[in-house]
Structure formats: structure tokens, C-alpha cells
Predict the 3D structure of the following.
Amino acid sequence: MVTEDPARAGLLYAGTEHGAWVSFDSGDHWQSLQLNLPTASVRDLVVHGDDLVAGTYGRAMWILDDVTPLRQVGAEVSNADAYLYKPATTIRVRNDTDFDTPFPPELTAAANPPDGAILDYYLKSAPPGPLTIGIYDSAGKLVRELTSVPLPPEPEPELNIPNYWIEPPHPLPALAGMNRAVWDLRYTTPEPIGPYTTQSYPMQALDERTPPEPRGLLVAPGTYEVRLTVNGTTYRQPLQVTMDPRVKTPAQGIVAQRDLGLKILDAMTVSYAANQQVAEVRAALAAAGQADAVTSLAGKASAFGGAPGGAADGAAAVETVSAAGEARSRPTISPRSIRNSAP
């Protein structure tokens, strides 16, 4: 069976006894669209919004998330050294938290769709150096930067939850051909503040999709700009973020909530820096043998710096950051992945 994409004339999808195919020239030439779809008889294909849904015989239903890049394929892309596709409009949605621990790993379950803005880009060849994707707001201020540079390896943490719950880092892919990344619509993750504000993980977890808390603030709906920088050249595309239609909070309320969260995080950072200065002066005086001066200074500084070992203050900071960061767990998918919606 063959179906045409409703957004681009001549873009055809075909289902055969052995898989799925795509044509960009009204059927004159065909290319495989198999990706991670198993060999199966594809009996039906439906374009739902920006997704392609495939019904198979005996292998359940599969979904190719976001066919926006296929609608933009052309000579401009194939002749470019790099190309940033215009992202689809993204809805600002919070994950449902009315669930508990994840399914056990031996239980078969379908992957969730990408949570955030899907960013697709083409590279003619793998770049020799790192590439970055910056997200900027309408005022030109950097909101978040993603990079292909992997984080240094760390020892496996000792936690009171299974380690397979934890979401691993996701450096940007930088392979020749199509690449996909997902931005979770959040500001940069705040650095842990103080020795008592270590990162934690919620019980409302998803298998290998549970990021540590606190997380960055959710952005407000609006127009953003995505900038891909590779080999010294920057490519730009607009990104529209819209509000979840189920949410009735007015736009100015969402903006006020975001601004308050940013102010709280800034104030916490300044407060912790001041407290650290007090601790450093105390340590320097103690090392110099000025015990009386230390006692006197401690009495004066405790009014704003807190007593040494302020675990309670640290715990409060954790709670505040988590609240300001509107922490939620989220799922992501691997690039170029077709999602199986079988239960």
C-alpha cells in the first residue's frame, strides 16, 4: 500500500511484505525506511500530524516520530556540508507523575515518544572537532547549550535505587549522515550548591530515563532560535514552543513562574558564595592560631552564614532547587529510531 504525505506533494510512503519505503519524487525512486523496524508485512501507513504510523501483520504497530526532516529533504540538503532542519512546533508538556517505580527490565514495554524539541541535522562527514547546539530566546540570550563532547567517565554511583533507572548522558551525535538530538525544553541544569545538596532521583522513575534532580527550569512558550555550530560555521532555524492546551494558566503566569524560579536560583548561588567566604575566613583564622578571633567572627557571621555544618540549611536548599526547577522525570529516544507501540 502507498500513502502520500499531506504536507509535501510527491513524498510517498509504501508498505510491503518485508518493510517500509519512502520516495521523494512521486514514486520514481524508492529508499528503505526500515531503520529499526523488524522485517514484517506493513499492511497500513497513516501520517498523524508529524508522525508516521505503521500497522504490521504480527509485529504490532510502530511509530516513526517526527517526519519533519523527510519533508525538507532536497538538493539544498544533499549539497551542503551541514544542514540544520527546521524543527517541528513543540508542545510544552509535563510528564505524568502519577506512577511509581518502573516496570522490571524483563517485562516488555514500548518506548515513550521524545519529550521535548526534536533537533535533526545532516553532516556530510564527521567533523574533526566538537559541534554544539545552542538554544536562544527571543532576546538572543542563551538558554541551553548541547555539545558532542562526552562527559568524563565516572564510577558507577552507589544509590538506593537500581542503577538501570538512571538516564545516561547524551552527547550530541556527530556522524556522517542524519543525526538527531532532543532538547527537553529546560534551562541548563543548576550546579549542586553546597555539600548537602547532592543530586537525587525520584521514585516516579522510568527505566534508563530518570535524570537526576534538581533539573533546569522549563522554558516559557514562545519563539526560540536553534543554532548548530560545526567546523566554525553556524546554522540557524526558528523553534516554536506552544503551551499544553490542557493548561489554563495564562501566558503571563507561566513567564512569572519562570522568572521567579531563575531569581531563586540566582539568590541561592549568591547566598552560598557568601557562606563559603565565611567558611574560608574561619579556616584561615583557625590555621593562624587565632582561636579567639574565630569564636568572635563565628558569632557575628552566624547571623547570615549559619552555624558550621548547616545540614538543615542544605536540605532546605535541595528542596528549594527542586521546586524551582520543576523537576520531573522524562523519557528520550535514540536518534533515527522507530518506536514500537506494542504494550
Notes: The domain at 67-334 is CATH 2.60.40.1220 (Immunoglobulin-like). The first helix runs from residue 68 to 72. Confidence is low (pLDDT under 50) at residues 309-337. The radius of gyration is 25 Å.
